[in-house]
Prior knowledge:
Blueprint: E1 6-8, E2 18-21, E3 29-34, H1 40-48, E4 59-61, E5 67-69, E6 75-77, E7 84-85, E8 88-89, E9 95-100, H2 111-128, E10 135-137, H3 138-143, H4 158-171, E11 181-182, E12 187-188
Parallel strand pairs: 1-5, 3-9, 3-10, 4-9
Antiparallel strand pairs: 2-6, 4-5, 7-8, 11-12
Amino acid sequence: MAPGDVIDKTEQTDPRVHGGSMGYYDPDGMVLHHTGSYDEGGDEYWLTTYHSNPVSTNQLVHRDGTILQLVAQDVIAWHAGTSSLNGRSSCNAWCIGIEICNAGDGERFTDEQYEAVALTVAYNCARFFIQDKDISSHKRVAAAAGRNDKYDPYGWDWSRMWTRVDQLRSSWPWSDVAPWWDNTSGSRVMST
């Protein structure tokens, strides 16, 4: 698989680990995280299975750049907790959660992850009319709500991501999203 390819696993995610549909004009933001683990299979299990501390995310980005769609983009995933972004609280209710497989201990993010995240950010911005200012880190949205217990995605190079997003935007036919993506599932149907 190529970086940015999406595998739809929404049917395998326990419905008890996420909320209902987002509001009519949502999603309207994205929050990036790291998983805090070296075990990608364990990350997927933790984010899709009901347990004592149920959590979930909309997308999980593996080290090879493969994206797992765990919760549909317009369904509330439980990834940000108490949070706020640009004066709007409860980020789970309106932001797509993107978990990037990374231990969070100084492990470098892979080139494939940067490519996959840039692709999904560019696509989600185009599809849902999300403004760049509404894309943030878990650390920032938690701090804005008075929490100092989050630091993810630790070591993420935002400048590198935005440079690639800008490159994609300069050559992507924004008015023609459908041939690139299946709009019902958010799954990629063609390689770039």
